[in-house]
Design brief:
Blueprint: H1 8-21, E1 28-32, E2 38-40, H2 41-54, H3 64-73, H4 78-81, H5 95-106, H6 112-127, H7 131-150, H8 159-162, H9 167-170, H10 174-194
Antiparallel strand pairs: 1-2
Helix pairs in contact: 2-3, 2-7, 3-6, 3-7, 5-6, 6-7, 7-10
């Protein structure tokens, strides 16, 4: 026998939240698609989640459902204030606090239990203390770098920046290090192609 469906009010609250989260599809990032269009934060979160799923057999001791939840939730707050490209991020810029506050605002329509879960997932990702959050944070950096390595970028795109981007996050697990090595090789190759003869 199946459980009773959620109440009308609970479903309406979830749908209202989804309406707000839908803005993530229009939140643009600095990364470019292979056709040269700016990617959205929603596209980044989708491919990050796909990357996590593809690595599931390599992630012993990692709760895959939790990992995918972290990947999906980590940038939700950007639906309100947008994305700040890594090259413009500065220590002490309060970006994380703004993103968290935006997430809390975005989650306001949700029933209390779901809003609390969304914020707790964001907090877990930000702290990067659990095995799942370590992987989510590292894979987040790697997905960004992968996008940069395959995107139809502007002629002055700074591939060298990617070689130092996210080193702390991608250095916390052997699998992350192994993937990072191959992604760095892509960026070195792109830099070599740009080098004058």
């Amino acid at each position: 026998m199946s459980a009773a469906p959620p109440s009308f009010e609970r479903i309406a609250a979830i749908l209202s939240f989804l309406d707000g989260a839908n803005r993530l599809k229009d939140t643009l990032r600095s990364g470019r698609t292979p056709e040269g269009r700016q990617e959205s934060t929603a596209e980044h979160s989708w491919r990050l989640s796909l990357l996590a799923i593809l690595l599931s057999d390599e992630l012993e001791g990692v709760d895959m459902l939790r990992l995918v939840k972290l990947c999906i939730v980590h940038d939700l707050g950007e639906a309100i204030s947008g994305d700040v490209p890594a090259i413009h991020q500065r220590e002490g810029d309060d970006r994380a606090a703004r993103e968290r506050a935006d997430l809390v605002t975005l989650c306001a329509p949700l029933p209390g239990d779901l809003a609390a879960e969304m914020v707790a997932l964001w907090d877990e990702y930000a702290a990067a203390a659990t095995p799942e959050a370590v992987m989510a944070k590292g894979l987040d950096k790697i997905e960004t770098m992968l996008t940069h390595s395959t995107g139809n970028n502007d002629a002055d795109f700074d591939y060298r920046f990617n070689l130092s981007y996210g080193l702390a996050a991608t250095g916390r697990h052997p699998l992350l290090k192994a993937i990072r090595e191959q992604v760095d090789a892509r960026h070195h190759a792109l830099l070599m192609r740009r080098a004058p003869d």
